[in-house]
Amino acid sequence: MKKKTVLAALGGNAILQPKQAATFENQMKNVIESCKFLADLVAKGYRLVITHGNGPQVGNILRQNEEAKDVIPPMSLDVCSAESQGFIGYMIQQALRNELEKIGLEIPVASLVTRVEVSIDDAAFHDPSKPIGGFYTEQEAAKLMIEKNWLVKPDANRGWRRVVPSPKPVRILESDSIMKLLDNGHIVIACGGGGIPVVKDKDGDGVYRGVEAVIDKDLSGCKLAEQIGADLFVILTDVEHVFINYGKENQMALQSVSVGQLAEYVQQGQFSKGSMGPKIEAAISFAKTGGKSIICALEKAAFALQGKSGTVVHSGLAANHQPDVNKGKLIV
Ligand SMILES: Nc1ncnc2c1ncn2[C@@H]1O[C@H](COP(=O)(O)OP(=O)(O)O)[C@@H](O)[C@H]1O
Ligand SMILES: NC(=O)OP(=O)(O)O
């Protein structure tokens, strides 16, 4: 039987938690923990493509460039994104390979620098919304806005953060190479940090050029899942389920939900814009192409694939669709 392909999107907490110092050691420690769960998926027989966030890292790399500008020419944000793909890809590659070897699996793991086409006409270029770098208090934020000319906004009640434009992904440019690596038995880390945003020059000679933005990794992950024909898109985060009335007394975990139902919850404003919102948007978009997604806690990933945890988002089109949850039956 052909192995099923899982596209796993690693949330920010899997690499660096908001209150941790952004040292290499802290990040590597978190990645090693995360890779135990990813290795488990591979041991269960899935073909695996991994994507990951880069918000804290790309913000820090950009700031390093800006602070050192009098000594070394600073790099633009697209170059910083490429650097963050190499940095985080290296950590995952190292940790996952070590975990796999521990359980006797000799599977190559490759990170691919990935470009993602966006539209230069995307309204997001005029309304920066993607938080990057560290967290600040309101007072610190006000100072940074004046001293460094940053745009700083509140980030989902977790503090204030610098924001940059976040256009929608249109096309993953390296998807053929990703497929070839997968077909040759590799685990592939791709589209890290949502991918390096590039646009095709309409007026010039039609070549691609990088643009200063950071794409949402869940939205790019969904596009990648579509382009490589993944059987399942798994969004790994720090909550076990998607909830309605989240954080309130009457909160309720969703176990299996159709796109139609989810769209109603979106209308009701159930999902915060900067956190659960993009995950829901990505899951809806993948379901509209016939794909199935799971949003679940990283440490419950293997359970979620057995229908014992997480929230399954499905198209709702199959007449006999049964919620697969809590039956121990494989989701794909
Ligand atoms: N309706 C909801 N159900 C579950 N979590 C929600 C909901 N609305 C907002 N959240 C928040 O979304 C967070 C996950 O998003 P985020 O922190 O951006 O994830 P990651 O960094 O893992 O990609 C959860 O920790 C939770 O606080
Ligand atoms: N690029 C991106 O979505 O990163 P975070 O998940 O870290 O915000």
TrEMBL record:
Pathway: Metabolic intermediate metabolism; carbamoyl phosphate degradation; CO(2) and NH(3) from carbamoyl phosphate: step 1/1. It catalyses: hydrogencarbonate + NH4(+) + ATP = carbamoyl phosphate + ADP + H2O + H(+). Keywords: Arginine metabolism, ATP-binding, Kinase, Nucleotide-binding, Transferase. Belongs to the carbamate kinase family. One of its GO terms (molecular function) is carbamate kinase activity. The keyword Transmembrane does not apply. Pfam families: AA_kinase (PF00696). NCBIfam families: arcC, PRK12352.1. It comes from Fodinisporobacter ferrooxydans. It comes from the Bacteria. The gene is arcC. InterPro entries: AceGlu_kinase-like_sf, Asp/Glu/Uridylate_kinase, Carb_kinase, Shikimate_kinase_CS. Residues 4-295 form the Aspartate/glutamate/uridylate kinase domain. This is Carbamate kinase.
